[in-house]
Each structure stands twice: as structure tokens, then as C-alpha cells.
Amino acid sequence: MGFFAALGATSCGHCPEHEHGTGNLPPKPPTAEEERKYFVTQIEGSGELAADLKPIVVGTADKLFEQTFGAPSPAMSRSAATACFRRGCLYQIVYRDQCTAAAFASRFYDGPERAPLRRWPGAIYRSAAFERKDGTVEATWALLINDLDRDRLLGAGKTPAPPPVVIPDRCGRRDAPPPASPSPAAPEVK
Hints:
Distance between the termini: 72 Å
Order of helices and strands: HHHEEEHEEEH
Strand content: 5-15%
Structural class: alpha+beta
Number of helices: 5
């Protein structure tokens, strides 16, 4: 029997991680939905952009977002117009299903050459994807504004980008697994 167990004590008395069964556990981490709500509330609560900056910020954000993900389509649509505030721009996106959400996310995550959005002069946040009652999936993208440097915002939107890589529709069944990244071309057979 261990020393503390022999004395009837299993806690050092001052560390929360050692207070088993005492009810003094660390706070429960927020759920993904609570985290998204908090994040959106913080951005929306940051206030309106200055009138002279709003068209620059919205225009740059929309241009980079569309260069990365393409125009809205049956597979991906926006549930609301772009909303930009002093701390960033919000995009509420609805995907046809989980498979489609994974395919669109891969356009951003699978390399900088596929993601003009990476030129945004601030951090980029994507919430967890939540399935809605109708089977579609919603996620929130936030383009954060660290500083309102007009030149950096203008420069981010000016660099030409190739059209987004089109990922064929591989999400025929609702239970289909998310697609893997596009595979390289098959080697030539001689």
C-alpha cells in the first residue's frame, strides 16, 4: 500500500489535478458550438469598420475567399452576406454534406499554392462543421484583422490567383467518407 493511501489521503491539498473526488475539478472546456458562438460574438462586438476602410476590407476578403473556394454553388453557399467588423470578417457557409465540407476545407489546408486566402494579412479561423436538421453542414470562417494597414489589405487582394482547383463531386452518398486529396496523375505506361 502506498504512503498516501496508508494515511487515507490521495491529494497533496493544493493541486487541482491531485484532488480526486473532491469536486474541485478544472472547468469543463467549451463545446465546439460554444467556442464558435464566443468567437463570433467577439468579432461582432468589436464594432463597425471605418467607412473609408469597409469597402477595402470587404472587397479584399470576398476576392480572396472566392479565389480559394469559388463562387457559391449547390455544393457550397453562404447563409448570410459577408459581415466585416473591426476585428475581422465572418462567413457563414453551408455545405451540401460532411464530405463536401471536407473537400472545400482541403482547398485551404492542402498547400499554399491552392489557397489565395492565405494572403489575408491576419489569422484565419474555421469553426467545427455542424450538421443541420436538413442534413447540410454549416461552418463559420473568420478572417481576422490584426491591424488595419490599408496597404497590406490592398496588396493581399491585388496578386492574381489561378482559378480554384475543381474537385469532382465525390460525395454521392450521405455516408461516403470524405475524399482524399487529389492524387497525382498516373504514370505513363510504355
